[in-house]
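Sequence only, no structure available. Ideas?
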Amino acid sequence: MSSKIYVGNLPYSVTDATLESNFAEFGGVSSAKVMMDRETGRSKGFGFVEMANAEVAQAAIRALHGMSVDGRSIVVNLARPRETTGGAGGYSASGYNTNKRSDVGYGNGGFGGGRY
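Reply:
I predicted one. Tokens follow.
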């Protein structure tokens, strides 16, 4: 089973290839991805590495956590599962959702306004 590792506080110069090469010395790397900003195309400063097994992942975490890369001390630990939040409303499989406040919205204050 593979283990996913979170790598934070990365310098903006780090690419997928350099991230993969840093972790490859500890064992098999399934994937390495630096998260990029959609609008600017620049690194967000964190990424994820998927290692072949848990033992190799733990060895990489112990060795690389706190290591200085281009003057920045990187954070390396096991990735947590993505949290599923309901969000702030919007379209979903069940249709359009909004906040369910009874004191705000149409019909509760004239001209579509509500009591605030």
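The first strand starts at residue 3 and ends at 8.
Hope that gets you unstuck.
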